[in-house]
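Throughout this review, each integer encodes one residue's backbone shape. One record appears below.

===
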Amino acid sequence: MIEDLLLILQSPFLQRALFGALMIALVASTSGTFLVFRGLSFMTSGVSHAALGGAALGLFLQSTGIAPWFHPILGALVFAVFVALVTGYAGESGIGEKMEVAVGVSFALSMSLAVFLMYYIPPVQVPSIWGYLIGDLLLLDSLDVVMLAGTAIPLFIVSLLFNKEFVYVSVDMEGAVAQGLNARAYHYLMLVTSALAIALATKAVGAILVYAILVAPAAASNEVLRSVRSVVISVFVIALVSQVVGISLSLSFRASPSAIAGILAAISYVVAVQIKKARERKRASLELEPELDESQEAQKVSLTHESQ
């Protein structure tokens, strides 16, 4: 059994899948946590689909000979940064609703542009555009792993260096400005680095897994934990375990590891919501008990006086 397991772990595609899962968990614990704190979970989906428009633009420029050097991945990164800048500009006042609207508009623009360009791209190249939406951990190649590491590790370092600033900007933008913090710079830094990481993660494992892993564990941890550090650690653990379990189960029966990981991550949010509700019911019950005791004691005193 152990020998079989070691033999499987020596497989290059499985090693790339496990390393990719580790990098995605790093992105989730940093980018996903702060986006959920900021109320910008929808930005993950917006950037993922914006990458689709960028990839379509890159293929269009290559196929028409206008700019043969313009790689689709470069287009995906440019569009991801575009979404981040539009979102950041709309959210300079700190109002989350404006940023959600900006993400929605840039998302619609990118998808519309992608569909528009598909009419002018050779049909044989069109499936490679949709490939940005559907990925698989077990299909990672060496370039995907290098790109993931090249964005996840710098994102983790930046988040570690500016952890307090990102928390201030995410929780109270106006308060951060009032305290003299260069909130606008940290605001854009957080959004642009997150967008770059999301775009490359989408190329590697697909938009569905990226959205599930970056949003669900962060939302679940935010429901039941209080400190930022505990939330970050919890997001990393949930994201990594979901993906590793997904990979393990996919080796036992025919199923996509990304799909299993996404389902497990979503279940973690449902469980967290139930834990939070159970805590609230218990707290309400504890607060009600002293009031009932006082009421019962008052009734006893009243009955005693009436009997006398």
Q: What stands out?
A: The radius of gyration is 24 Å. Residues 176 and 182 are 8 Å apart (CA to CA). DSSP finds 13 helices and no strands in the chain. The mean pLDDT is 82.
